[in-house]
Design goal:
about 90 residues, about 50% helix
């Protein structure tokens, strides 16, 4: 139903709201309705765009198949220690 979001309103309340709307908006009531409809449509378009964007991140268009990678081999080098008693180069003193 169109007015399902207003469950507590009966026919008397709806009539009162309609009369109040005509009194407040008068001749501008069709314009108000038109702008309200356009706003709702823009909101729905924005929500649809967000849903599409979220689906694009969660579900890729092409399935990604990962190829197994060979194990990485790292060559380890031993640290070079020099004997502190043996001079490595002559100093100019």
């Amino acid at each position: 139903m169109l007015l399902a979001f207003l469950p507590g309103l009966g026919p008397m309340e709806l009539t009162l709201l309609l009369i109040l709307g005509v009194i407040l908006f008068g001749r501008r009531l069709p314009d108000v309705g038109r702008y309200l409809g356009k706003g709702i449509m823009e909101f729905k378009k924005g929500m649809k765009g967000l849903e599409d964007e979220v689906e694009g991140y969660t579900r890729p268009s092409e399935p990604m198949i990962e190829q197994p990678r060979p194990p990485q081999r790292v060559t380890a080098t031993a640290p070079k220690f020099e004997d502190p008693t043996v001079p490595t180069s002559p100093t100019n003193s």
